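Predict both folds.
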Amino acid sequence: MTTRTDHAEISMLVDRFFKALDNRELTADRWRGPFMDDVRMETPLGTSQGADAVRATEEALERYERTQHIAGGVLVDADADAGAVGASVSWNALMTHVHRAATLQERGGDADPLFAAGGRFEAVVRRTADGWRFSRIVVRPIWTKGRPPVGVDVQ
């Protein structure tokens, strides 16, 4: 069972994860903070695991000039299979992406500078000696507005 303290720590993990995305702090050499070594990430761009998951995230974010990820409604449920060491987490997300100048140039003068999405994140977290860490993250878009970067096919 998770306590109020666990819920607060897991909510902070979600906030730190989104902050790291927007500040471009999830790089191949600095990724272990919020993740288990074998983290699995499932996004509209594909599925990857471990360091490859972080590299894929880093590459996806490099397609944009800036991003803003906002999380809300974080729900934490104890994972009965994992006892006191794991929990399922879900939250709503608004994700705004500012296109690079090259994308706008390629699309012409009336191109929308933003690609936005709303959806749900579903995750599994595990308690470690260093605190809670993500072992799995699934991104489930519900809606999008605008177009993704040139050459990107969102599933």
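Second protein follows, with its predicted structure tokens after the sequence.
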Amino acid sequence: MNARLKAAIQHWSYVAPLLQPARNAKEYADLVEALDAALDAGGADETNPFARLADYLGELVAEYEAKDKMPPAATGAEALRYLMQRDSLRQIDLPELGSQGVVSELLSGRRDFNARQAKVMAARFGVTAALFL
């Protein structure tokens, strides 16, 4: 087996997350951190060995940012639907809002977010609480 391939296999659990598109805000933040580290290591210089990695990470970051542009939401329900879709979440994944019935009512607009729910969702998704109120 090729020595470089063997080394890649040994370190794959560390390398793989750097090569995959971000699926949520945490993975996006990890990619941004990795891009910053690659640039700090000299990746901005095209002759540096990290230049190709920095380019690739930059593409992954840009891809997530392009798809993550939240449309202007008229309601908290629309914002929550968008964020749930973005992060591949279901109603059951949001127990901090209340029961599935409560989440359903929030999503349908039959119930308004209270201050606690807005604050919890803001912290979870990294947005302002005003988005839900």
